[in-house]
Structures are given as C-alpha cells and as structure tokens.
Amino acid sequence: MFWKYTLFETKLLLRNRKSWFIAVFLLLFFLLFFMYYKQDVPLSLVEQKRIEASKMHATFEHVDNLRHDIPEVAEVYDYLTEQSSLINFQVWYLGNGDDSEQYIENGLELNQLRLKVHELGNEGIPDHLITTKEEIQKDDALLHYIKDNQLPIESDSFATNHYFTKALQMMTGLLFLIVVLISGNELLVYEQRHQTVMKGFPLSFMKRVTSKVSIHFVYLYTFLLLGFFIGSLYVAKSLEASEFSFPVLIYKNGDYVAASTQQYLLYIFIGLALVTILLLFLSILLNMLVKNAFANILIGLGIFLLPDLVMAAGFKTTLLHPIKYIDITKVLSGDLAIELGNSQIDYWHAMASLGVITILLIGGIYTINKLVNHRVPKDSTLEKAS
Question: Secretion signal: which residues (predicted)?
C-alpha cells in the first residue's frame, strides 16, 4: 500500500504546474547564471600579485613617515621591505622565471612575515591595507596543497572553481530555501481537500509524510543535479574551464584547509541533500500548524531571517545560529563563522546540527499528529500514527 500511495503522490506531483515551473527553474538556473557571469573573468595569479605589489607600495608610503619616530613602526617597515622583495620575486617566477617551486617557497615565507607584522600590532599600517589573518591562512593552505600535490601554479582549474563557487553561493541559502518552501507549501493540501479519496489508502500519517518527503526530495534533488550538470557542460565548452585540479578553500576547526574541487562539490551536494530533507519536514510541520500555502512560505522566510533581525537589535543569537546553517556554501567558506563570530561553525558541526533539527522536526510532526487525534474524530484528515 505504501508504494501505491507513493505512485499516487508522484502522479499528483507530475500534474502540478508549479512542480514543472520549479523543475525548469532548477534546470536552467546554472546555465543562465554562467551565461550572464561569463563576462566576469577571474584575475590571473600574475594580476593578483601585481595588485599585492601596488598595495605594498601604498603601505610603504604610510609607514615611511612614522618609522623614524616609533621603534615598533621601524621594525614593521623592515618586515614590509622583505615582503615587498618576495612579492616582486613571485611576479618574476610566474613570468620569465617560470619556477613554481620557488614561487611557493617565497609565498610561504611571505605569509610568515605577515604573521610577524600582526604580532607587532600592524603598527603604522592603515586598516584598509592590512592583510587579515584569514587571508594569510587561506593563502598558506592553498600553497601547501599545491606543494604537496605538485600542481601547476597557473592552472585552468582556478577559473573552473571561480565559476562553480559563485554559482553555488547564489543558489544556496535564501534562494534554495524559497525554492523548497514553494515546492512543499501544499504537501498536505490535497489530503485536507479530498478526505474521501485519501480513505482509500489505509496508511498511517507518518508513512504518508515519509512518502511525500521522499518524492519531493527525489524530484528537487534530481533537477538540481541535472541543472548543475547542464551548467557544467556550458562552462567546460564555452568558458574553457574544465580542469579540476586546483583546490578550493574550506573552513575546518577554526582554520582553512584546501580541498579538491571534487571533494568540495561532494560536501556541497551532501549538505544540500540534508537541507532539502530538513526544509521539506519543516513544510509538513507548517502545513499542519497553518493551513495556508502562502503563509507557510512567509513563516519559513521569517524563521531564516530571525537571527539577522535579533542580531540587528543588539541581542546575542547563539541559540539561533543553526537556522543559518542551511546556507551550506557560507558554512564551508567560513564566511558564516566570521559573520556570526563563532569559530566552531564548520561543515561537520553544521551537518550534525541540521541532522538534530531534522529529527526534532520529525518528532514535532509525530507529537502534533498524536495530540490532534485525541481532539478530533477518527475520520479526520490526519490519521493516527502507528
């Protein structure tokens, strides 16, 4: 009977125009994003280093005026001189020098000098010219990964990662929340409107919920993956970005580590799978509490924005932080940890929290259904859970 009910729910899904609209959106999102974003060509490593050299020159101008009067600034100036020399050598190694090994060694030495300047309090350096510790950690992780895996410095994969990470950052978080909420905002509506038809399926309420969530999960996730695959083909052919050897930085245990592009994508899509399941169960719960499809979407959005609103009001929101974990790319990049001021927020911490929230939602659905069954007649829409 479970499979008959699942087949019935699948037919309802396929006949729903809203479902096809969402499917088309997911299929075309990455393709259209890459078509629009192709004009944003990422800076080459040489260009990045030249910008660093220009930034260093501006730093010298500020520090030079103070170094004769303040001993700490004089020490900072000496370190900056060494840094400037290393950056200029890196530019040369990327060009005529063509020495990847020496470029990496100079980069690692450069990061150590930057950390020493931090230890001196960045005396004499304006805030906008300071290289943050996060930037140093990221660069260090990349260089170590390239050195350990003997990768070419100027890799086409740098462009591939640029396009993929930008597209996934756009899809996850608020946009993906809206897509799943729209998909699931009427999960119980048919049962509420056609109670006579539903009596033909003698299944417990929780089995029906499992069926609905499974169908919508497979439908959403399949079109999401297909859409990403179509977008990837466009990137590979039109933007000539099909190399995946260059690493992507992820935030882990309060530090940054470099991971392969394949590992990064695996983390992203496993995370999105869990987020999809969580949001579908949330939709079921909202369907039970508020029998209004539009209100369900608004309440879901309100829950997601609640930590930002509370933080804007000046209150600590540590207990509300897990709500923001559904933005899985911000979790992986470490941006969420910085934004919320909580260094414990990394991928596995977020996944564990989302898993616990999903279990709590399932428990809430079960409990509410049990309570309703004690208050309403047996022929109610919500059947007693076994």
Answer: none
Q: Are 386 and 204 in contact (CB under 8 A)?
A: yes
**Residue indicated by tokens 């629009």:** 36
Q: At residue 64, what is the residue type?
A: D
Q: CA-CA distance, 328 to 336, in Å (whole number)?
A: 9
Closest CA to 122 of 138, 135, 139: 135
Tens of pLDDT along 225-252? 999 999 988 888 876 666 667 788 899 9
Q: What are the structure tokens assigned to 102, written together?
A: 């020496």
First to last CA, the chain: 15
Q: What does pTM read for this prediction?
A: 0.85
Instruction: Enumerate helices (H) and strands (E) in the chain, giving the number of each.
Output: 16, 2
365 vs 370: CA distance, rounded Å: 9
Query: Which has more pLDDT, 301 or 5?
Result: 301
**Host H or E run for residue 208:** helix 205-238
Q: What is the pLDDT of residues 261-319, one digit of tens each?
A: 889 999 999 999 999 999 999 999 998 888 788 888 999 999 999 988 888 887 877 88
**Rounded to 10 degrees, what is the CA torsion of 330, 335, 336, 342?**
150
